[in-house]
Amino acid sequence: MRKLTELFLRKGKQKQEVENPGNIYIYKSKEEISTILITTFDVNPDHLEEIIVTTKRRLSGKNDRLIYLTNNPDFAMFRRHGVIFEYLPPLIEQRLHATDMPWQAYLRERWGLLLAKWRPRRVLAYGTTIDTFLEAAPATTVRKAPDTLKS
Fold it and tell me: Which structural domain range is residue 114 located in?
């Protein structure tokens, strides 16, 4: 016990090093994360799992982040594999609501936001490419204003 007490007392008596404000310290910065955006527009849902497994195995390095962009409303496969994904409505839903929304403008703006948000190093396309997907969006249609009663 006495030796243990001496050890603690000796450590307390050691002179603390005074930090010199002129010292320069170089810290290793974190390596930048590289993002790969993988589009899966109009891909058969039966092939999604194979695409996710293959891309995770072949593309995912220590500093790589894979982001999947889909128009498939069933997110179960993406959630099961624990991957990050973004959703854009499929063409059939766009046509269904064509009078309610300027789809081409919306999808182009959303695509720009996704590029700004994730800053991908590479875009990899399975199925329909993003350019074809954006071009296929319904053009803006003018919706007739409802008639209002004037009193």
Answer: 33-136
Among the listed residues 39, 35, 36, 37, the one whose alpha carbon sits nearest the alpha carbon of residue 129: 39
Q: What pLDDT, on the 0 to 100 scale, is given for residue 19?
A: 60
For residue range 95-141, list pLDDT tens digits in order. 999 999 999 999 999 999 999 999 999 999 999 999 999 999 998 76
The alpha carbon torsion through 117, 123, 124, 127 (nearest 10 deg) reads: 80
**Predicted structure pTM score:** 0.72
Band of residue 66 on the pLDDT scale cut at 50, 70, 90: very high
3-state secondary structure the chain: CHHHHHHHHHHHHCCCCCCCCCCCCCCCCCCCCEEEEEECECCCHHHHHHHHHHHHHHHCCCCEEEEEEECCCCCHHHHHCCCEEEECCCHHHHHHCCCCCCHHHHHHHHHHHHHHHHCCCEEEECCECHHHHHHHCCCCCCCCCCCCCCC
111: CATH? 3.40.50.170
Question: How many domains in the chain?
Answer: 1
Residue 143 lies in a domain: no
